């Protein structure tokens, strides 16, 4: 996310998308782990923020079945890009080379 953007509202929306898309696989994983006495692990998705010089990097981790992971990653990436595109602030109008003022020709 670019500098100046509010990452927290985007994170909430991203978390909803990821949870919706991965909930079935997460439930299956937790059931498998319970049968192997691995109850202390959670299959819930996780989002981390990493500050960078250009803004904030959003890192999403989630559980997916091996045979579904490429398709799921593609769907999630498309959904998240669309979500961020819709939520991004309006770009300022371009500055005119002739007048030096903002506005459209």
Furnish the topology, listing elements before pairings.
Layout: H1 7-35, E1 46-52, E2 55-61, H2 69-87
Antiparallel strand pairs: 1-2
Helix pairs in contact: 1-2
Write up what this structure looks like.
This protein has one domain. Helices cover 46% and strands 13% of the residues. The chain has helices at residues 7-35, 69-87, and strands at residues 46-52, 55-61. A two-stranded antiparallel ribbon has the order 1-2.
Helix and strand pattern: HEEH
Largest sheet composition:
2 strands, antiparallel
Shape: elongated
Order of strands, widest sheet: 1-2
Q: Overall mean pLDDT score?
A: 79
Structural class of the helix and strand makeup? alpha+beta
Terminus-to-terminus distance: 29 Å
How many domains?
A: 1
What key attributes describe this structure?
105 residues; two-stranded antiparallel sheet; alpha+beta; 2 helices
Task: Offer a quick outline of the entry.
By secondary structure, the chain is of the alpha+beta class.
């Amino acid at each position: 996310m670019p500098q100046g953007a509010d990452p927290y509202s985007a994170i909430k929306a991203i978390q909803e998308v990821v949870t919706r898309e991965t909930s079935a696989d997460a439930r299956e994983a937790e059931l498998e782990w319970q049968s192997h006495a691995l109850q202390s692990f959670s299959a819930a998705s996780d989002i981390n923020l990493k500050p960078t010089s250009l803004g904030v990097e959003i890192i999403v981790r989630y559980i997916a079945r091996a045979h579904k992971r490429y398709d799921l990653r593609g769907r999630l990436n498309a959904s998240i890009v669309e979500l961020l595109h819709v939520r991004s602030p309006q770009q300022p109008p371009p500055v005119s080379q002739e007048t030096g003022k903002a506005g459209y020709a």
